[in-house]
Here is the input.
Amino acid sequence: MYKQKSQHRPIQNMPIYFIKMAIRHKNYLSIVYNTRFGKQLLFFPDYIIQT
Here is the structure.
């Protein structure tokens, strides 16, 4: 489902369309930064996804 593609990149270089996609879709509750995988953007739907 979710791949670690940009784990070597800082969070500032993350694509903005990820944020826009989360705002557009109401089913996404929040955007969190997973510092365990290089501060990548993780999207949590209505249910909590165990990583």
Remarks:
- The CA atoms of residues 28 and 44 lie 6 Å apart.
